[in-house]
């Protein structure tokens, strides 16, 4: 999946990818040859806090805006890929209980995929945002061999999203909830310190991956414990939410407290990947999220720690690779476009 250095007019039909977020939408165009027509982030306000009608209109504006930017006639568009944060069904119906981004009652049970399809008059293919990023990482990494490979991706953010890709396609599950890797409960041996409280997730589980490997996990569980061990640390003077967001900067400077926190996160993801190895035996393990945007030496240390704590058999070690999700800020829209491209029948 190559991308090029400048906007260009497509020579054939295309698909559009739309990544919906809490504040912004990101859009891209992918042509029939597998080339993206833009190599940068193209955003507009998502307006999700204004309710479904405004948000769908904002997505339609993102769609028309990216076509204008790439000089693409709408007649060349065969399908649109859409991703949003979950939880949502495989068909793009927001959970009946809402979600972090879609908290208003008007969003509960809202069919965002169907609404966008009706608004723009084109087929819309839906994935959640982590699945879309996982799909892009898979296709970017394996290229022409993507349809013959499998992968698992963990995307660390406010929560922990994930995606499972088999033979080049996202495993969505019966209710669209497959790949919710953050809520896999893991063995905590060798992850927690002796006497460290069992982390609790916002979902109600104890000891799942998200309770450790997420910004929420840092804020709620890890950082309060480690500040009790380092009471004179500069972050002890900050509100816990602000301190959690500042922690990565300390990690990049090899601060002992920060490395202890991120080391526990990496170990937890290693435990998750060990479980994945025994379920799907993937060809690749991808890691995404804020750590990808960190200083190179720090993100390499984090990836190495994940790899070190992923227990693979010798045959698996020889067959599988570990890698970071590329182009993270654009991965969602690009993965959504890849998903749409796969639905277009041969012309």
Describe the structure.
With 347 residues, this protein is of the alpha/beta class. It contains 9 helices and 10 strands. It has helices at residues 52-69, 112-120, 129-142, 215-229, 240-251, 256-279, 296-308, 314-319, 328-343; strands spanning 14-20, 24-31, 43-45, 77-84, 124-128, 150-156, 160-166, 169-170, 284-289, 321-324. The strands form 2 sheets. A 5-stranded mixed sheet has the order 3-2-1-4-5. The chain has a 5-stranded mixed sheet with strand order 8-7-6-9-10, with helices on both faces. Helix 2 (112-120) links the parallel strand 4 and strand 5 (124-128). Helix 4 (215-229) crosses helix 5 (240-251) and helix 4 crosses helix 6 (256-279). It starts with 13 loop residues before the first strand and ends with a helix. The model is unreliable at 1-5 (pLDDT under 50).
């Amino acid at each position: 999946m190559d991308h090029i250095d400048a906007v260009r007019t497509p020579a054939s039909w295309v698909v559009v990818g739309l990544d919906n977020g809490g504040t912004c939408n990101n859009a891209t165009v992918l042509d029939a040859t597998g080339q993206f027509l833009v190599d940068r982030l193209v955003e507009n306000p998502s307006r999700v806090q204004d309710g479904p009608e405004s948000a769908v209109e904002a997505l339609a504006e993102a769609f028309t805006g990216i076509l204008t930017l790439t000089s693409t006639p709408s007649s060349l568009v065969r399908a649109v890929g859409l991703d949003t944060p979950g939880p949502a069904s495989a068909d793009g119906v927001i959970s009946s209980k809402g979600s972090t981004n879609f908290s208003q009652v008007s969003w509960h049970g809202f069919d965002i995929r169907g609404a966008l399809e009706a608004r723009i008059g084109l087929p819309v293919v839906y994935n959640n945002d982590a699945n879309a990023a996982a799909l892009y990482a898979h296709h970017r990494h394996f290229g022409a061999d993507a349809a013959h490979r499998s992968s698992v991706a963990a995307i660390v953010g406010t929560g922990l999203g994930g995606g499972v890709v088999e033979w080049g396609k996202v495993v969505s599950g019966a209710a669209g909830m497959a790949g919710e890797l953050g809520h896999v409960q893991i063995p905590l041996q060798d992850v927690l310190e002796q006497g460290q409280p069992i982390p609790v997730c916002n979902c109600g589980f104890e000891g799942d991956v998200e309770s450790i490997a997420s910004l929420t996990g840092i804020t709620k569980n890890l950082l309060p414990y480690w500040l009790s061990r380092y009471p004179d640390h500069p972050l002890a003077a900050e509100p816990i939410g602000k301190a959690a967001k500042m922690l990565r900067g300390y990690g990049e400077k090899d601060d002992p407290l920060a490395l202890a926190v991120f080391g526990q996160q990496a170990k937890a993801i290693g435990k998750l990947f060990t479980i994945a190895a025994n379920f799907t035996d993937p060809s690749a393990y991808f890691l995404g999220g804020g750590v990808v945007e960190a200083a190179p030496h720090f993100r390499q240390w984090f990836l190495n720690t994940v790899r070190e704590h992923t227990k693979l058999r010798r045959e698996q070690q020889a067959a599988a690779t570990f890698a970071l999700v590329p182009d993270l800020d654009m991965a969602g829209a690009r993965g959504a476009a890849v998903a749409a491209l796969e639905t277009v029948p041969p012309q």
